[in-house]
Amino acid sequence: xxxxxxxxxxxxxxxxxxxxxxxxxxxxxxxxxxxxxxxxxxxxxxxxxxxxxxxxxxxxxxxxxxxxxxxxxxxxxxxxxxxxxxxxxxxxxxxxxxxxxxxxxxxxxxxxxxxxxxxxxxxxxxxxxxxxxxxxxxxxxxxxxxxxxxxxxxxxxxxxxxxxxxxxxxxxxxxxxxxxxxxxxxxxxxxxxxxxxxxxxxxxxxxxxxxxxxxxxxxxxxxxxxxxxxxxxxxxxxxxxxxxxxxxxxxxxxxxxxxxxxxxxxxxxxxxxxxxxxxxxxxxxxxxxxxxxxxxxxxxxxxxxxxxxxxxxxxxxxxxxxxxxxxxxxxxxxxxxxxxxxxxxxxxxxxxxxxxxxxxxxxxxxxxxxxxxxxxxxxxxxxxxxxxxxxxxxxxxxxxxxxxxxxxxxxxxxxxxxxxxxxxxxxxxxxxxxxxxxxxxxxxxxxxxxx
Length: 451
Description:
By secondary structure, the protein is mainly α. The protein has a single domain, classed as Amino acid/polyamine transporter I. The protein has 21 helices and two strands.
């Protein structure tokens, strides 16, 4: 799976001419250049910013807090370098996924806009094969990303609340499920409104606290980066607890963790990008790349450097306990509580995003009127997951996520020729093409001229 995902990143990055290098400034502009935080989502879709925060809600979670510790302890500091490589190439994949989702989005019987891999898979293969593959993807996502992910995130939240505050797990499960029910009952407007508030606040909070800790440990930061680059290519240069870890392990765990974190190629984030209100499919392709920048190059990197610069990697703790240890070096026991609060909001927003992705596919499979059944399923799995032993659920989640990747990439390769043509036309059109990016540039130029 690592080779398939990494190879796909190389393929689309090369065919598109590395937009993550040449057009990153435009990606930033189309995402943040004309931000209207008061705009509300409706059945016609949501703003590019709201789509991005919904995608990030699914991407940012325990994988960004507990994940780096797993990668570093198993693959050494060099794993961080390979996280960056996988993220860079993943930007090429996620650009293509978002563009495809926009190109092949559809309108349901109730007038609501929807889209995702199930739609571009069917477009790539109009016959029976495409129909079977499209439905298979929907089933895989509903089970692996909707139900299983809801259980896992519910369990993570209940564990964090029980460890930090002594709250019974079943109580946390019921509270989380109730909050979820209140939010999803408000439809797409309330879902995006909630996510677009939670994600920026918690991401900024986690980032600010992380930077503060790094400033206090500024003398160790150069050494931390030195460990990353030395260990990526020459593991013998790193001694101590990382003895015996080779370049192969660094690559394996770093690439795997990076791809799992940013979800490039998995087929989950296209559901959010499909409903963005943009003038050209490639507009949202550019915006989608910013989710990887925020997820992997900012939040994930801060977690990794924290672990190395504070010496938390040698504490003997595992998983989330490593980051809690890094926070405790500065904030004491309050640091552990701060991480627990972050985990709650990150995981809760992931549950909301997982619900949204699953709902898109459930409605495609069973019709618009089937939504209450799906809601009941997710609420049950959140409560059950809070008290369950999730070892088996993790296996189910991993298996169906793998099947999602397989079916999604078949569809993505199937429409790759169309995507390349769209991108060439987008670039050739220059400032004359009617795009969201050009509209933003013109507005900014007019504002500058007026001043």
